[in-house]
Amino acid sequence: MFEALAFGVAVLVVLAVVGLLASILALVWWVVLLPFKLLALVFKGLGVLLALPFLLLFGLGGVLALIFGFGLFLLPALPFLLIALGIWALARRRDHPAPRTS
C-alpha cells in the first residue's frame, strides 16, 4: 500500500518537474522568436499599406456598381414614379384656398 502511494507521489513530482522544464523552454523559445514575430508584424503592416490604395479603388468601384445596379432596378418603376410625382404636383398646386370647416 505504501509503495503505491510513494510511486504516485514520485510520478507527480516527475510530472511537475517535466512541466516546469517545458514552461521554461517555452519561455526561452518565445524570447528567441519574438524579434522575428515583430518583424513579421512590420512586414504585414507594410503589405497592408501597399494594398490600401487598391482596396479603396476596388471599394469605390463596388459602390459605383451597386449604385448602377440600383438604378437599373428602379428603371422599370420610373413611369410609375413620374405619375406619382405628377399627381403630387397637381395636389400641391392650389389656385384657390381650401374652405374652412370650423
Q: Explain this structure to me?
A:
By secondary structure, the protein is mainly alpha-helical. It has one domain. It is 86% helix and 0% strand. It has two helices and no strands. The longest helix is centred in the middle third of the chain and has 73 residues, at 2-74. The chain is elongated, with a radius of gyration of 38 Å. The model has no long low-confidence stretch (mean pLDDT 92).
Write a compact overview of the structure shown.
This protein is 86% helix and 0% strand.
Q: How much helicity do the residues have?
A: over 70%
Major sheet description: none
Principal-axes geometry comes out as elongated
Counting DSSP E segments of at least 2 residues, the number of strands comes to: 0
Radius of gyration: 38 Å
Secondary-structure-derived class = mainly alpha
Beta-strand residue fraction: under 5%
Task: Count helical runs.
Answer: 2
Overall structural domain count: 1
Which stretches are poorly predicted, pLDDT < 50 over at least 5 residues?
none
* Distance from first to last alpha carbon: 106 Å
* Mean of pLDDT: 92
Order of helices and strands: HH
